[in-house]
Design a protein that fits this description.
Largest sheet: none
Strand content: under 5%
Radius of gyration: 19 Å
Shape: globular
Distance between the termini: 17 Å
Helix content: over 70%
Order of helices and strands: HHHHHHHHHHHHH
Length: 270
């Protein structure tokens, strides 16, 4: 065990409890979050891609009105790119988990009092901190550089909805990190990420895509991530933010249960 690993394990032993309900290991959560935010290269890539796409597509079609949402295309594109960047930030945590598992860090955690739920929540919080920064950067660029117009209340509702909706994608990243081998992580990530982005309508509005893609999109969390942002921005619809929130919550519950089951199963093998 290296000195760095030994230092990291010590806070976990002193602050964790056997069950999540008894309290989270906040030092470990803070350690995880700070470690992710120090990855400058990953942050620049994650923030730059949605911003560049926003500047290209938002600047070209921003003044037109989207007949589906009745929002300006610039606002629609901003929300798409904010969802895209948040999803990419959350899913990128899969590489961290795969690396940790290959180095044996997960085995070290399983011999500490860290519970399955605490492990899960710590990873989700780190991913959501990363996603929050991506959303903020995208919205600031849209407002300051492209003059995207929306009242503050709708901006806050849309950004908050997207940020909360990132949870299922953080869980997908954890799931990939639990199962994928290092040599297989990159292609698996690209298939999952590209599939969710394209089929979920985060790159191109579904209104201009074939009808069958709309049917597929409704089965994916990426569609509902974009949708919750649109509804928060005041898009037309009868269910408001409730419907996408319920769908994303359902995804989170199912994925969370699978992850905790996997974590406990691995712990039982020790």
């Amino acid at each position: 065990m290296t000195a760095t690993t030994a230092t990291a394990v010590a806070p976990v032993r002193s602050t964790t409890t056997p069950a999540l309900g008894a309290g989270l290991p906040w030092r470990y959560v803070a350690l995880e979050t700070a470690r992710q935010l120090r990855n400058v290269r990953a942050m620049v890539f994650t923030f730059a891609v949605p911003v560049v796409m926003l500047l290209v597509f938002g600047g070209a079609y921003g003044s037109q009105l989207d007949p589906t949402t009745h929002l300006r295309y610039l606002v629609v594109t901003t929300l798409q790119m904010a969802s895209y960047g948040a999803m990419m930030a959350a899913l990128s945590q899969a590489f961290v988990l795969v690396t940790e598992r290959s180095l044996g860090w997960n085995r070290q955690l399983r011999i500490t009092p860290l519970s399955g739920w605490a492990f899960l929540v710590s990873k989700v919080i780190a991913a959501m901190a990363f996603a929050a920064m991506s959303i903020l950067v995208t919205l600031v660029v849209a407002v300051l550089a492209l003059h995207a117009a929306l009242d503050p209340g709708h901006w806050v509702a849309a950004a908050s909805g997207i940020w909360c909706g990132v949870v299922p994608f953080a869980l997908i990243a954890v799931l990939i990190g639990q199962f994928a081998k290092p040599s297989f992580a990159q292609p698996l990530f690209m298939v999952v990420f590209m599939g969710l982005a394209i089929l979920g309508g985060l790159w191109v509005p579904l209104s201009v895509m074939p009808a069958w893609m709309g049917d597929v999109a409704h089965l994916l969390p990426s569609y509902w991530l974009n949708r919750i942002g649109q509804m928060g921005a005041g898009a037309t619809g009868t269910a408001g933010m409730l419907e996408p929130a319920l769908v994303l919550t359902g995804w989170a519950v199912v994925l969370g249960a699978v992850i905790v089951w996997r974590y406990r199963r691995d712990a039982a093998r020790q």
